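Final paragraph of the annual report: two paired records, presented back to back.
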Amino acid sequence: VEPADVTDVVLTHAHYDHAVNFTLFPRATVWIGDAELSWAAAQPPGFNPIPELYVRELCSSERVHRIQDGETFLPGLQAIAAPGHTPGHLLFYLTASDDPVLFTGDAAKNRAELLSMTVADTDDARESARSLEKIWEIWRRRPGTLLIPGHDLSMRLDAAGRPAYVGERAAEIGAWFSETLQQTKIDLCCAPRIDFSQYAAQ
């Protein structure tokens, strides 16, 4: 899909790692929570996760539409308030598909937050805890619901009701250890385990 063919961009919140690339889609309607954008616009410029120049563009662009909690703003796509990480953070719940899809953004960044019911990097820990409860309630509502978190692989609930990844996690480090640009790659997820038993007697 070419960037110019994208019709809609949906933002869970205004932090730079979730919002700045809306500019890559010149014909898309951009959707963001009204409460979130109002909060972001009121933040002072400086070293924080709010990209003030992009927020200024979001506030002034005719392509941007502000949405409210509970609003179905595209066919089968509902915005649901999930404050905590930011005050106006939204979940998006898609029911116009064979299986529902729940986009959690950074209200649930990863599997660890879903299982521990605690979150890192939040403006309000109590609100985040309530948002996690809301996520679980929606996720359990219909079997087969796909959950897409902010910083992890997609998941479905298994037969025991626990999050199971769809796909495989992968990560590696690329580093230069010589005088050439040839990279050495170190696999962080799937490297074979080293059997240390052979060294036990030494």
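The closing record of the year follows.
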Amino acid sequence: MGYDSDNIFAKILRGEIPSEKLYEDDETYVFMDIMPRADGHCLVIPKSPARNMLDASDAQLAACLRTVRRMGHAVMAAFDAGGVTVQQFNEAPGGQEVFHLHYHVLPRHDGVKLRPPGKMEDMDVLRANADKIRAALAELD
């Protein structure tokens, strides 16, 4: 199975589909998940093609994890969270639905369960949450 350049994240990277951008550097791009399982749920992807971690290069994986760590600090600060959950799925049997390498970064609070998957969030709520994360990122610099 190869990389499909028409996957939704590739289209986001090309600007064909809008996204609520939080951060980008030369190698990675971060945006809000439109079906968040927690307030502040965001996605970290490499800018270069990779189906998942099984075919990604060491450089892609290292770049993504550097950005995942940065975003973990940012979402914890933005949402006064006590922890962060990072999820990454590989191939359909492993739970992967979009076949472009991506990491879910979710701020977590004691006693608060993740919401069920599949519910679209209101764009105004996503933008407000994105603003909180961008402000927290600015404090990290």
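The domain at 8-140 is CATH 3.30.428.10 (HIT family, subunit A). This concludes the annual technical report; the extension proposal builds directly on these records.
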